[in-house]
Amino acid sequence: MAGGDGSPREGRRTVNLQRQQYASEISSQVRVYPGVREPPLTADLPQRLQRETHDLHHQAERTGLMASLLSGRIAQPVYCALLRNLHALYEALELALRQPLASRLLAPLDMPALSRSASLAADLDVIHGPGWAEAWPLQAATSGYIARLEHLGRIDSPALVAHAYVRYLGDLHGGQLLRARVAKGLGLTGEAGTRFYDFGPADRVLALRGAFRQMLAGLPLSADDCSLVVAEARWGFEQHRRLFEQLQPAGG
User: Fold this and answer.
1) 82 burial type by CB count under 10 A (0-12 exposed, 13-18 middle, 19+ buried)
2) Quick check: is 70 in a domain?
């Protein structure tokens, strides 16, 4: 009979307890975030996420390195440092979404067409060359982000939904604008060095945006889970803002 220390049943109990503790921790954050309100049971999660993270999203994309990138001012070493940190972040996110523990609730988040870690590695191979992983250290914000993703993966938390939203929809929107600016700023031609932003033709990008929003709207989340996801998305944007500040060269 299963039970006792080290048994499958005991392991499930531990994971469930950790999920409850994490949900309680995030719930306290929900109450202090002014943009987050208790939703009706029929709340549309994609709309909530867009509405209640808009302020932090706006701040993040105008902070530090990202502000320079959007204006077309980017140096190759700084851009390599950004890609290196994003690669580590995506590896952690995609591993968390694909690990065997992942619940059926989280399974729809694993959309191979959106995976970016391989594309980032290919871009770094072109722009930097061999040895990029050793050449560029991870920033403190990235290390903290990875630790968070690993923890969420271990407890199979619905909060992982938030990080898929923060990264993948951002790539499908602003990433398309950044591709042209990066190519021009670094003198890149063709697809080499900008595969991170490549999701296919414009109609496919639109279809992926719609499919991702539809997937979010169809997740069987409770009202408490939705608030957990929104609060976690706000944390994600704040952590991106910290990363962009840390990557900005002194005096930049």
Assistant:
1) buried
2) yes
**What 3-state DSSP class applies to 122?**
helix
Could you tell me the residue range of the domain that residue 209 belongs to?
Answer: 54-247
Q: What is the pTM of this model?
A: 0.82
Helix or strand run (H / E) with residue 159: none
- CA dist 152 and 155 (Å) reads 5
Residue 222, Ramachandran bin (φ over 0: left; ψ between -120 and 50: alpha; else beta): beta
Number of domains in the chain: 1
CATH of the domain at 212: 1.20.910.10
Instruction: Dump pLDDT digits (tens) for 151-200.
Output: 999 888 999 999 999 999 989 987 778 888 999 989 998 889 999 999 99
Please say whether the beta carbons of 156 and 103 come within 8 A: yes
Tell me whether residue 81 is in a domain: yes
* Nearest alpha-carbon partner for 27 in 161, 221, 225: 225
Q: Between vectors from CA 61 to CA 139 and to CA 31, what angle results, nearest 5°?
A: 85
Please answer whether residues 84 and 194 qualify as being in contact, where contact means their C-beta atoms are separated by less than 8 angstroms: no
1-57 tens-digit pLDDT = 444 556 656 655 665 565 555 555 544 443 333 444 444 333 489 999 999 999 998
In a domain, 130, yes or no: yes
What distance lies between CA 243 and its chain's CA centroid?
A: 13
The answer to whether residue 231 is domain-embedded is yes
